[in-house]
Fold this protein.
Amino acid sequence: MSFKKAYLSVRRHEARWREVALQALLQASLGSRYDVRLTGLGAGEADILEGNSSSPDITIYREGRPVAEVEVTGTRYPYYAIADKGLWLRPDKLRYALRSPYTERIIYVHLLIPQEFPEGPWLHWLPAKTAILFLDDEHQLELMVTSSSKLKEHYVSIPPRVWKTEWHSLIRHIRSLAGDE
């Protein structure tokens, strides 16, 4: 089984929903002075598109100027089932931030929706400058893509205590990147 085939169901039923939901939540919270767009390869799409891009899923603009790039990730597992392993990101997403001349505006958002939304620990976010500190051998994690695929994916595991969890602090961080805070 290929990675594309293994991820197709996840893409259609989970990842796309997370991207579109976060875009709408960000736009509503930031207001009309900001433009929140799905910009990554395949962001918001039901199908997996051909290509290889590690660029973030969402770009936030203020007066036509990009102020933040948001990589959306998550899992179908509830928080209690994953907290001991940490929340994980793909290493290529972290390497993108290392190569970017705008590392300070990249944000990783890990959503546990719908199983934890809105009452549980549904939101975890982290600036790229913090996340890239975990791009080392000690924080590598190997997980099965799906139980039936036998494909393994490598991730960087970041302890839950490092992630920020408050929605208003994410909004305040984005506004500060735009010079509004």
